[in-house]
Amino acid sequence: MATKSPDAQSLLTPAEVAALFRVDPKTVTRWAKAGKLTSIRTLGGHRRYPEDEVRQLLAGIPQQRS
C-alpha cells in the first residue's frame, strides 16, 4: 500500500477541475495555458492541478503567483 508523504500535495485531473467549475475540460487546459492555473505535467504528458490552488480559486480567494 502506497502512503503519501506529509508534504505531498493532492493533484486533480482536468476532468475533476472541470466538474468543480462546471466547464469543459478543454477550458481548464486553456486556463492553464493562459496562466490562470498552475499545471504540473505527469511523465506521460498529462496535466494535473494542485487541489489547494483550485479550491482557493473556486472560493474566490485572490492568489499571489510567484
Describe what you observe in this structure.
The protein is an alpha+beta fold. Helix 1 (14-21) crosses helix 2 (25-34). It has a 3-stranded antiparallel beta sheet with strand order 1-3-2. Helix content is 41%, strand content 12%. The radius of gyration is 12 Å and the shape is globular. The mean pLDDT is 86. The protein has 3 helices and 3 strands. Strand 2 and strand 3 form a beta hairpin. It has a single domain (11-59), classed as Orthogonal Bundle (Multidrug-efflux Transporter Regulator, Chain: A, Domain 2), CATH 1.10.1660.10. The longest helix is centred in the middle third of the chain and has 10 residues, at 25-34.
What attributes does this structure have?
66 residues, alpha+beta, Multidrug-efflux Transporter Regulator, Chain: A, Domain 2, three-stranded antiparallel beta sheet, 3 strands
